[in-house]
Amino acid sequence: MQTTGPALGVSTTPEPATPATQVRVEPLPQDAAQPFALRDCALIAIATGVRAHNLKELQDRVQGIEPGCLYYHFWGGLLRPRFDDPEYRNDFAIWVRNEVHDEELAERLASVDPTQHETLEGLREAVAEAIESRLEVMEAAAWQRTQSPFHFVRSQIAVFDTGQLLNQPSQLAECLPRLSLGSVFYHFIDARRRVPEHLDDFRVWLQHWGARYADLCDRLAEVDYYFVSLADLRKELAQILGEYFEIPPRASREEVA
Amino acid sequence: MSLLEQYAAVAGEEVVDQLMQLGSKVKGARVMHVNSTKKGGGVAEILDRLVPLMQEVGVDAEWDIIDGPEEFYECTKGFHNALQGQHVSIPASRLRAYEQANERAAERLRPQLEAADFVFIHDPQPARLLALCPGRKGKWIWRCHIDISRPFLPVWKYLRRVLAGYDASIFSLSDFAQPLPFPLYLIPPSIDPLSDKNRELTRQEVEAVVSEFDLDPDRPMVLQVSRFDRFKDPVGVIEAYRFAKPYVPGLQLVLAGGTASDDPEGEVVLREVQIAAEEDPDIHILLLPPDAHRTINALQRAATIVIQKSLREGFGLTVTEGLWKGKPVVGGNTGGIRLQVVNHHTGFLVSSPEGAALRIRYLLKNAVERQEMGKKARAFVRENFLLTRQLREYLTLLVGLGHGQTERIELLG
Q1: pLDDT at position B249, please?
Q2: Is A61 on the interface with B (CB under 8 A)?
Q3: What pLDDT shows up at residue B384?
């Protein structure tokens, strides 16, 4: 199989002269004709010093913070140490529930799906709109000082090659159980910012075998990754691919222990 | 089994593979850590394990310390208390001792410090070394392990001047940080699952320690492990025990701690604790040497509940240690304890001795929930707070510092 056809991926590496949120199309490394190049990523958090002490301040700050903060507060929770909140996946929703004690707004913020926005500016608008619509009915409570402020944090992500190349989809099934969580994040979640139609890298690669893996792609498309930790997501993906390629499941570390 | 293989057995092969790959991006980089003690306290414990692991993944890491006369430690203890909000007066003579200790350390360490690619200065004690190394070529990072969100201003103003010129800082939590004119990275600390403090122990080892300190293995035991320091509120723990005791007559309390070589106040606080205990035979105050890691490990495993009722706390590694041993933790609602203790999941956050007593009673009454919380606690630490995660973040930081403030760094090809 040869590498041909249109560019398959988009990168969010910001150009100096363009806004950080603008995507730049570039060829994907895991092109159809090539093996799938497994990559990994690691995230480091950086405090911005910007804080919000009440809901009104949150609204104001969200309008002006750098786009990287939105990325961090929606996705960073998966790659940084924290206790998994079983209900809310983004930091705005968690803070509104825990500190502002407004369940309704927390629910609205939690339902903002970052993958449904082409750019971080679109995501910013969705967050701001959710807060704004609530502020209209909250009146004085919006200015009430919370016990702990919301700290705006941005992140720096280092993406790197693992040096591992997969030639056949069955190899993906074999390696998934021991893929790093950074790899799972990069290929299955972060990809949706880089790949047209919000696909993940695995499906993009599988689609280059034509209809052969269409069923598998459909099953991967059904994975709702928004409510699980990366470790659980890895387990779910490994199960889907393992069943498809009939690879017996490996015992987890907990089970071995 | 190599060091990395041992970590892979606990944290996962994929975790170690990732460290090797990240390490290859900064292979051979000369990294120097400087703090003020080789023994006692969380910083020394982390460096004792982090530095060899950094070496394993290809980084040329070294660790040295700054030391000085009694007056130097009194000064830095004053810094420590002032940064955590106490109004502390630091006489000029102590400041001079601080500066002289840094000058002496600079004389000794200057060649390594100036040649290093990255220098990590831990806490304020060695912070003046930067100004004393004019020929430095690498990036200097100030690693602050404590909560300085509400510092005593006169002392903070002095230290802020000392910190001018650093390239970056690291805080454990964003709540702890102060605005500084360089990037503020956020890296929570971690525990080492292979250290004597955290490795698996046999039942016999645990029983031997229980017996050594005349503890009754058949009665519930609440344990706080920490230095004898007012911020750890050991007297508040005794109050909590007294509130709970009428409801749980068999309750035993163990306060196990020591004094670090850089903490001159420890003995005063220890005396206060002994007075508060009033020779109650079920309150066991154990003054342990700084290297009693296995003893502490055994006590944590023998405990029914771990408590860390701090009033102010940096990160609270003793909480992480307790969680790793599968114990729910009753923790003060402060600092990094809030990051680790989640009500009804890994323990309970409390704000008073009365609250601590209530939670102790609750956990002792509900054995099944206590065990479930313990399981969740251990899994939580495995995913988030092992040394391997901290090393990953340090390596990412090293990579990041070499690439400016770009949001995404692609190290491909």
Answers
A1: 97
A2: no
A3: 87
Interface pTM, i.e. ipTM: 0.83
Amino acid at A144: Q
pLDDT band at residue B403 under the 50/70/90 scheme: confident
CB-based contact (8 Å) between A111 and chain B? no
| Nearest residue to A213 (alpha-carbon basis) of A26, A3, A36 | A36
- CB contact set of A141 (below 8 Å; sequence gap of 6+): A55, A100, A102
Collapsed DSSP state (helix, strand, coil) of residue B215 = coil
- Whether the CB-CB separation of B398 and B29 falls below 8 Å is answered with yes
Write out pLDDT tens, residues B362-397. 999 999 999 999 999 998 899 889 999 999 999 999
Lookup result for tokens 């650093």? B166
Does B402 contact chain A (CB < 8 Å)? no
Residue of A156, A181, A254 lying closest to B406 (CB–CB): A156
More confident residue, A21 or B104: B104
| Of B378, B392, B408, residue with least CA distance to B22 | B392
For A232, B43, B164, B277, B388, the CA distances from B239, given in Å and listed in that order, are 42, 29, 44, 9, 38
Number of residues in chain A: 257
- Tell me the per-residue pLDDT of A27-48, one tens digit each, with 9 for 90 and over: 444 444 579 999 999 999 999 9
For residue A154, CA distances in Å to A75, A77, B351, B403 come to 11, 12, 31, 16
Considering just the CA atoms, what is the radius of gyration of chain B in Å?
21
**pLDDT at A98 (0 to 100):** 85
Task: Answer whether A81's CB lies under 8 Å from B323's CB.
Answer: no
* SS3 annotation, chain A: CCCCCCCCEEECCCCCCCCCCCCEEECCCCCCCCCEEEEEEEEEEEEEEEEECCHHHHHHHHHHCCHHHHHHHHHHHHHCCCCCCCCCCCHHHHHHHHHHCCHHHHHHHHCCCHHHCCCHHHHHHHHHHHHHHHHHHHHHHHHCCCCCCEEEEEEEEEEEEEEEEECCHHHHHHHHHHCCHHHHHHHHHHHHHHCHHHCCHHHHHHHHHHHHHHHHHHHHHCCCHHHCCHHHHHHHHHHHHHHHCCCCCCCCHHHHC
Closest CA to A257 of B403, B270, B349, B9: B9
B239: nearest Cα among B112, B360, B149: B360
Q: How many CB atoms lie within 10 A of CB A15?
A: 9
Backbone angles phi, psi at A4, to 5 degrees: -140, 180
Nearest to A46 among B21, B185, B346 (CB): B185
B317 touches chain A (CB under 8 A): no
Is B139 strand, coil or helix?
A: strand
For the stretch A117-175, pLDDT in tens is 888 899 999 999 999 999 888 777 778 898 889 999 999 999 999 989 999 999 999 99
Nearest to B349 by CA among B316, B300, B379: B316
Apex A16 CA angle, A10 and A20, nearest 5: 55
Distance of alpha carbon B343 from its chain centroid, rounded? 22
For A148, nearest residue in chain B (alpha carbons): B175
Dihedral angle computed from the Cα positions of residues B332, B338, B340 and B345, in that order, rounded to the nearest 10 degrees: 90
Instruction: Tell me the per-residue pLDDT of B149-182, one tens digit each, with 9 for 90 and over.
Output: 899 999 999 999 999 999 999 999 888 889 999 9
The better pLDDT of the pair B405, A24 is held by B405
The amino acid occupying position B133 is C
